[in-house]
Amino acid sequence: MKILKTALLMLLPFFLFSCISSKDVRYMQPNESLVINEEGLVPYNIPVYRITKNDILTLNIVTTPQGDAAQFYSALNASPPNGAQAGIAGSASMNISNQASGQGGNTTIYFNGLKVDSNGDVNIFGIGYIKAEGRTVEEMTKEIQDKVNENFVAGKSEARLNIDGITYYILGDVETIGVGGEKKAHKNTLTITEALAINGGLNRTVDRTNVVIHRKLPEGIKRAKIDLTREDVMNSPYYWVQNGDEIFLNTRSKNLNGFGKDPIQTLTTGVSLVTTALTIYLIFTKL
């Protein structure tokens, strides 16, 4: 009986310190720090993406059927795709292929896109070098459109410059292997909760209070930490995923020791440790 009481006392700390509460796993819990406007809405705090060195852009020039955009491109991209409508017969178009299995990025865009060089410029055939680093896609598009208008009748052509969607990377432990990897969203905006939901969400081993984001900026890489259990995370610019973001999912320290994933695992691990300890104790007391 004394041994049983000792065993129960040994198990008690495991349940007190290793179990995960609902507050540990619930997303965006009410918080007094949340900033809302006079209409009770959470203001958007979407950072503007600025192009950095080594980015790769896609560019299409859409013209009327009588237009000729070939002078702006190499022969590789000058021909319209098969079955193109007459209204875009003058368009220099790139077909976007799926990325190869196990490889990052898009091979078609890598070989045929506009690469931002070490000087922060892109070289557009027929136009020349244009500054890219530190500028937005909209700013570059306007300059390219102005260059195109010098060669075409105004209103008869359109420059379409894009990045290949929002590419981001999720890195976690072995428990999040289905969530991790290179991800791509062809959307204008993407929140971190949307990004995680697209990839199946987080399991209970992930520390939601300590999600680290590395963001690529023209000046360098900025590191930030966000807490997904607080609703005021919606006020953070890091709530919005940007192209090139690296999202690090940290494991709870208690899970590294085999506790806290779920009550059954906690009980099983605790009982195993106590049983082992009691067995060793009984062996030595009989010697």
List the helices and strands and how they pair.
Elements: H1 2-18, H2 22-25, E1 56-63, H3 75-78, H4 107-112, E2 114-115, E3 121-124, E4 128-131, H5 137-149, E5 157-163, E6 166-171, E7 181-185, H6 192-198, E8 206-217, E9 220-226, E10 246-251, H7 253-256, H8 263-286
Parallel strand pairs: 6-10
Antiparallel strand pairs: 1-2, 1-5, 3-4, 6-7, 8-9, 8-10
Task: Provide a concise account of the structure shown.
Residues 47-152 form the Polysaccharide export protein N-terminal domain. Residues 1-18 form the signal peptide. It is built from 8 helices and 10 strands.
Helix content: 25-40%
Shape: elongated
Give the end-to-end Cα distance, rounded to a whole number of Å: 21 Å
pLDDT averaged over residues? 78
Along the chain, the helix and strand elements come as HHEHHEEEHEEEHEEEHH
Largest sheet: 5 strands, mixed
Got a strand count? 10
Beta fraction: 15-25%
CATH architecture of the largest domain: Roll
- The secondary structure category is alpha+beta
Quickly count the domains: 3
The number of helical segments is 8
Return the CATH class of the largest domain: Alpha Beta
* Spatial strand sequence of the major β-sheet: 7-6-10-8-9
CATH superfamily of the largest domain: Outer membrane lipoprotein wza domain like
CATH topology of the largest domain: Outer membrane lipoprotein wza fold like
Question: Over all CA atoms, what is the radius of gyration?
Answer: 28 Å
Instruction: List unreliable stretches of 5+ residues.
Output: 73-101
